[in-house]
Amino acid sequence: MFVLAMRSIRQRPGRFLATLLSAFLGAVIVMTFNSMHDTAGQPGVDPVSRETLSTAAGVVGGYGTLLVFFAIASTLTVNVRQRAAERELLRCSGATPAQIKRMVVGEAVAVALVGAALAIGPALLGGRALLEVFQDSGQVAQSVEYSFGPVASASGVGITLLAAAGAAFLAVRRATGEGRQRGRARTVLPYAALVAGAASATSTFVFSATDAALMAPPAYGAILLSVGCALRAPRLLAVVLDRLPFDGPSGWLAVRNLRERAGQLAGILMSLILFTAVATATLTMQAVESDAVEASGLVKSVDAKNLETLNFTVVGIIVVFVCVMLVNSLYAATGYRLREFGQQRLAGATPGQVLTLVGVEGLILMVTGVVFGTLAALAGVVPFTVARTDEVLPGEFFGIGAAVVAVAAVVTLGTSLVTARRTLRTPAVGAVAVA
């Protein structure tokens, strides 16, 4: 099966580019920040610099690990679903389900290994640049020298390979129908995340307005609430679709298509919810904190600067990763509909009507993700703002929220429409015949 996996990659390398890109970016992020552990572990590093570097590596490295898994999982799920005919041919040829699993996992691990290897150079440059940022802001001493050692390399390669193997295994189980029966854990986990998120956000009021840890409970609350909503993405999409008042043909067909493909689109919706919630909550709370410190006339401490740097870095990582996940998933999902678009055109639909259909589908997905992501963000922003400034909804929220929505709209609608437009260049008869 490993030989077959290598042959599959060599014959059609294009189908693995999305997975390779996700593995590459994930390994770059994990190696870049875990190299701060190597740097902090050098002899002669002062305690303040060591704490700054270790905190950055621990916090962002943890986020990076989760994002690597989600990014690779989203691309592999689409890849595996699109190869149903190939899997059926292998089974007819005598391959067992276990052998097919090993083939898919082998492909994913091989691609991830290449991505991790390619990431070493950029991670070295990124780690040096990150250290310079900390030194320029006064958070790390100028005498500290950069080190890229075993922690960075081992964690980057190991996490990327484990994420690829795990994501591939789950993707092929879903595609083959195994594990379709929902277990108790999968049922309870979303609600547990929602309850824990609400409890964490509520605990904000236990802290004082000047407490250094004030931002942590609402931030974790928003993240957990967004995770709970993301895990319920197919159900949330179904609820929204049941209440849409579309009467036109494009709207009706878009709702019908989305309802039938709710499970396949769950990864896209999850990405939108997580992106909206984490970016909106983190940036808004940081803006409120910065404005409050400026209004008081105080100077930010080293810990406050560390927190601000981490907040912006985490949001930056999430924006990059979610954009990659969305572009990869939407590109693959829309490009896979070549036959469907060809059939619609043979039935009398014009290219403009097909694009309208794709646009309506993308709009529904985008709005659904933004709405539930914003609700999760508000559950963290409101308690923090009340505790920090005695206001309820800060003015910073509206500008930041609008920027987040704009990014989500550009990525979702732009990718869907551009991919659909490229797909429509194929003649309808040829699209049906080729697919």
Automatic annotation (TrEMBL):
Q: Which InterPro entries match?
A: ABC3_permease_C, Macrolide_Exporter_MacB
* Keywords recorded for this protein, A-Z: Cell membrane, Membrane, Transmembrane, Transmembrane helix
Bilayer disposition of the protein: Multi-pass membrane protein
Q: Looking at the Swiss-Prot or TrEMBL record, what is one Pfam family this protein matches?
A: FtsX
Superkingdom field: Bacteria
Give TM regions: 16-36, 56-78, 108-131, 151-172, 188-207, 219-241, 262-283, 310-333, 354-377, 397-418
Q: Where in the cell is it found?
A: Cell membrane
Show where the ABC3 transporter permease C-terminal domain sits. 64-176, 314-426
Family listed: Belongs to the ABC-4 integral membrane protein family.
**Which protein are we looking at?**
FtsX-like permease family protein
Species for this entry: Streptomyces koelreuteriae
